[in-house]
């Protein structure tokens, strides 16, 4: 059995701690919220880990991740490994990996998907890093990925950022899929000829080419609130949709569906969009993201 430190014990991080422990391993968790944490500081967490020390980050992208990595750079030593499992921008990974390398510390970036259902179903993991660093942390990936399948866990590339780039594109595709479901729901809900919209969507869950987990989540939401009257037509964008479109522009890759779905979310901030009610409902279903009440 193995041990790692886990920084960030929110919706996903807390469930990941439980899933790894359920696999028989030890997790020493730290969070700024003392009610969630196992220890009182990063120093105390690091001191509790055997060598080579492995620390997995599940903190917000940008400055929170950067400041945590900078602090860990002074606490960890040669041969240790940091895993960034949050939604960092892939371009940040090269800088973080280079900084840790000056200390002899390895770095693995891991796009992590599974939302609030990952504890039960497992997480899809897309990671980037050297073969040597990945080998040190493979046991953690094995504990977190879906059971009884070889899918759901992939070494996306050896270049820092490969995992987060793959996860970024995944999220861009997710934007477009949700937008298509939402627009279809808005049309069905508006036209009187269809009398039972929730059951129409439910009928698509079996045997059709549009079945998916997102569809399952939307059906659950429609059964609870047929016209989504309790949800405001406002949907945030996490940033990864923007980064996907930016990367498409940088590489001259046409991306009309994903870019349109991103711009549609911007429109939700101007009007109470019916389609955005469905987007907000699905985001709440798979990730526990907050919704605004009507």
Automatic annotation (TrEMBL):
Belongs to the 6-phosphogluconate dehydrogenase family. Keywords: Gluconate utilization, Oxidoreductase. It comes from the Bacteria. GO terms for biological process: D-gluconate metabolic process; pentose-phosphate shunt. Gene3D superfamilies: N-(1-d-carboxylethyl)-l-norvaline Dehydrogenase, domain 2 (1.10.1040.10), NAD(P)-binding Rossmann-like Domain (3.40.50.720). Residues 163-290 form the 6-phosphogluconate dehydrogenase C-terminal domain. SMART domains: 6PGD. This is 6-phosphogluconate dehydrogenase. Coiled coil: none annotated. One of its GO terms (molecular function) is phosphogluconate dehydrogenase (decarboxylating) activity. It holds the Pfam family 6PGD. It comes from Nocardioides baekrokdamisoli. PANTHER family: 6-PHOSPHOGLUCONATE DEHYDROGENASE (PTHR11811).
């Amino acid at each position: 059995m193995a041990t790692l430190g886990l920084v960030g014990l929110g919706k996903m991080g807390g469930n990941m701690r439980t899933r790894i422990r359920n696999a028989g391993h030890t997790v020493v968790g730290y969070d700024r919220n003392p009610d969630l944490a196992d220890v009182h500081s990063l120093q105390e967490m690091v001191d509790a880990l055997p060598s080579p020390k492995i620390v997995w980050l599940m903190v917000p992208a940008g400055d929170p991740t950067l400041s945590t990595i900078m602090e860990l750079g002074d606490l960890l030593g040669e041969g240790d490994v940091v895993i960034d499992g949050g939604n960092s921008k892939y371009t940040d990974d090269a800088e973080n990996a280079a900084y840790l390398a000056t200390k002899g510390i390895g770095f693995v970036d891991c796009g992590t998907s599974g939302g609030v259902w990952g504890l039960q179903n497992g997480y899809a993991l897309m990671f980037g890093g050297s073969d040597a660093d990945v080998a040190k942390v493979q046991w953690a990936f094995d504990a977190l990925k879906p059971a009884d399948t070889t899918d759901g866990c992939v070494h996306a590339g050896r270049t820092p950022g490969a995992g987060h780039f793959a996860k970024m594109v995944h999220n861009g595709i997710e934007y477009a899929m949700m937008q298509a479901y939402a627009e279809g729901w808005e049309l069905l809900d508006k036209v009187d000829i269809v009398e039972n919209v929730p059951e129409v969507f439910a009928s698509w869950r079996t045997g059709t080419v549009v079945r998916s987990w997102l569809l399952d989540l939307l059906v659950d939401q429609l059964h609870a609130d047929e016209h989504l009257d309790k949800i405001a037509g406002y949907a945030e964008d996490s940033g990864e949709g923007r980064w996907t479109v930016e990367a498409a522009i940088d590489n001259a890759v046409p991306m009309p569906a994903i870019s349109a779905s991103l711009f549609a979310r911007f429109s939700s901030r101007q009007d109470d969009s019916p389609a955005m009610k469905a987007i907000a409902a699905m985001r709440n279903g798979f990730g526990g993201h907050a919704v605004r009440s009507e």
